[in-house]
Fold this sequence. Notes:
Helices cover 81% and strands 0% of the residues.
Amino acid sequence: MDIHIHSKNISSGMLILSILGFFASLLASLTNSNVKMMLLNVNEPHDKGRIFSIFNLTDSLGTGIGKFVGGVISISLGSLVVAMKISHIFGFYVQYFCLCCTGTLKQT
C-alpha cells in the first residue's frame, strides 16, 4: 500500500492556515488593548492605578484558571476538541454581553 502526498495541496493548505492564523492572532491581540484604552478613558486619574491593578489581577487569574478548567474539561470529556467547542460557546456569550454594554455610558 503506497501513500502519496501531493506537495501542492499541503503547501497551499499551510499557506491558507498561516494566513488565517495571522489574522486571528491580530484580532485576538486587539481586545486587551481596547479594554485598557476604555479603562483609561472612563476612570478618573487618581483611580487609574487601582483600576489597572484589579484589571491585571483578574486578567492573570482568568488566564490561569481558564487553562486549568480547560484541561479538566478536556480530560473529563476525553477530547480537547470538545473543550475548545465549549470555550467557543462561552466566547459567543461574552461577545454578546460586550455588545449589549455598548452605549451604556453617559457622554460628558
